[in-house]
Specification:
The protein is α+β, with helices and mostly antiparallel strands. It has 2 domains: about 200 residues, no CATH class; about 70 residues, Alpha-Beta Plaits (2-Layer Sandwich). About 60% of the residues lie in helices and about 10% in strands. The model has no long low-confidence stretch (mean pLDDT about 85).
Length: about 300
């Protein structure tokens, strides 16, 4: 119970930091420089540039509408965290300029677009990693990622192309402003994908050791890792043994390697990066077909 409470508090603290970085990138680097990025915040910025309606008001209204749709599909748990992030973002967009009145003194809009996109990407990455969302196109991205094997960054790109492109229709804006918006979008998407993909990277570890049984027992019993043992023979020594195969997240590699060396300091370890891992404890294959419908799919395929 205590661990659960600690985990929840930690998640909300990290999401708060993430939303601060996201909102600060807009209030300090993007909106003051006339750069309309992507997402609902970008859409609210476009409306602000055209009508002077404050960004927080439009941001909140659009997100409320999308939130209802997202909650129906993704569940109440996701909706609650998203509500928290939307309220937090609305308040920060409203009051951050007064609390932190600093605005980027960099004249080059290109640099401001890159910095703004990078900061917002880091912020949303932290939010995503803890099960939250800033709403808007974030909701669309997570819904699509739930059913299709695609990265959230690509979904953002598709939505943002339309939002940022609409800037060209504003009276006092032109193609140059659209380009700066696209630069912010690319920076944001690249950083977001780097954070989320890096967090899911997996490795395959091969362990060659005469103490294979002790190592396998330690990994399965103490570290609760799955281990596969394959028959092997050392061609030089002509001794039979076992090669252990372990698949783990990249951030667990150091812990596993250290534990193996504690059992056998002379163990030979080979590590290779794997593209995708599907199964218990890792990712699930997203086909868009609900459980129990495979028989109908196979039957239709055979009839064709």
């Amino acid at each position: 119970m205590q661990k659960s409470v600690y985990k929840t508090i930690k998640e909300y603290l990290v999401m708060t930091v993430g939303m601060f970085l996201y909102c600060f990138s807009w209030t300090a680097f993007l909106i003051p420089k006339g750069i309309a990025g992507g997402g609902v915040t970008g859409m609210a910025s476009v409306i602000f540039f055209a009508t002077d309606i404050p960004v927080p008001y439009t941001y909140c209204l659009i997100n409320v509408l999308l939130l209802v749709f997202g909650t129906l599909i993704l569940g109440k748990g996701f909706g609650f965290k998203t509500i928290y992030c939307i309220i937090l973002a609305t308040l920060m967009l409203q009051f951050l300029p007064a609390i932190i009145p600093w605005i980027s003194d960099i004249e080059d809009k290109l640099i401001n677009a890159v910095i703004g996109g990078t900061l917002s990407g880091v912020g949303i990455g932290l939010v995503f990693m803890n099960g939250g969302s800033a709403g808007g196109t974030d909701i669309i991205a997570i819904i699509i990622s739930k059913y299709k094997e695609t990265s959230p960054g690509r979904v953002f790109l598709a939505c943002d192309l339309i939002i940022i492109g609409s800037v060209i229709f504003l009276p006092d804006k032109g193609l140059e402003d659209v380009i700066y918006g696209y630069i912010q979008m690319v920076s944001f998407s690249y950083i977001l994908d780097s954070i989320l993909t890096g967090n899911k990277q997996s490795v395959q570890i091969l362990v060659f050791s005469s103490k294979f049984q002790d190592i396998a027992d330690m990994l399965t019993q103490n570290m609760h890792r799955g281990v596969t043992a394959l028959n092997s023979i050392g061609w030089f020594s002509q001794k039979e043994g076992k090669v252990l195969i372990i698949v783990a997240r990249k951030n667990q590699l150091q812990e596993i390697s250290r534990a193996i060396k504690d059992v056998d300091s002379s163990a030979f370890i080979s590590v290779s990066q794997v593209m995708n891992v599907y199964g218990k404890g890792f990712d699930q294959i997203k086909t868009g077909v609900k459980k129990g419908e495979w028989k109908q799919v196979i039957k239709k395929s055979s009839q064709q």
